[in-house]
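Worked example
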Amino acid sequence: MSLVINTTTPEGIVLAADSRQSYRNMKGMARIGSENAIKLFQINRRIGVGITGLAFLPDGGVQRNVSQYIEEFRRSSKVKNMEVRDVARKLHHLFNDKYHWKDQMDQIKANIQNDLSSKGCAIIQMEMDEQSLKFSFRTPQGTIENGMARADPIEILVAGYNPDGTHQVYSATIPGSVQKLRDSKKQGMEYGSSWLGQGDVAARIVLGFDGRIQNVDFVKEAIQNQGEQLILTQLRGLEYAIQWGTMTLQDAIDFATLMIQTTSAIQRFSDGINADPGDMPGVGGPIDVAVITPDHGFVWVKKKKLQFSDCEVDLDNEPFL
């Protein structure tokens, strides 16, 4: 699944990502395929992209790494003058077209129907919206339970500066939508940190809880009685008071890499949570880090190189013959 983190400060923008790449084999089991995957990309001089989620897409009878689509998009001459919003929207459109996730949802629906039927459950309702399948069923014991399923997502984080010097950060989820996370033109949205992928550890550290708290019965009851917005507002009182607007670029690098390192360490010693054991340890390997500043644009702080024994090669810096 991976973890991509952005931290936006007055001095500049940080993007960081791990290098682990996992996949599901023919039996549907999750496996670690590589510790050297590329998840950060420079789009133009001012904009960077991080990607998590589904690693491969079928294309012409073969599996293509999603990074290949990013590279093809990046090599387009049209990206030079693009704004951050344009990159986010065009990548969302690109992957929404390449990823036939509706076919996957149809298969998921059929699998759920067969599984419930084999267990003697009676399906009460099944509804599919643009992103997920929601269903309810009656168990052989007579209890009514609810469930939700969705296709494996592709998540894209786009951050950088526009030609006019303003900065923005967007997320794009397939299936899903494009959302603005940071905007220097809007008060209160200028600075902060965002993450995509397996962000539960980062959320627990910074926010004080992760999103799965809404699956706990007493929280469900509180949301039903008092409304989701009120409960989430109260929970956000647990968030650490981090002064993102005074953070230096070096501190932002330290924060982003710490969240990835901590996630990898927790996943090493844990096996999901008690309520949902067996989570995939999808974060690991070297951490790539890039910064984007108004004056210097996109700059790699640390990037994996090809290596053998004591030799290393960075293809981006190799001259053409």
Observations:
- The mean pLDDT is 92.
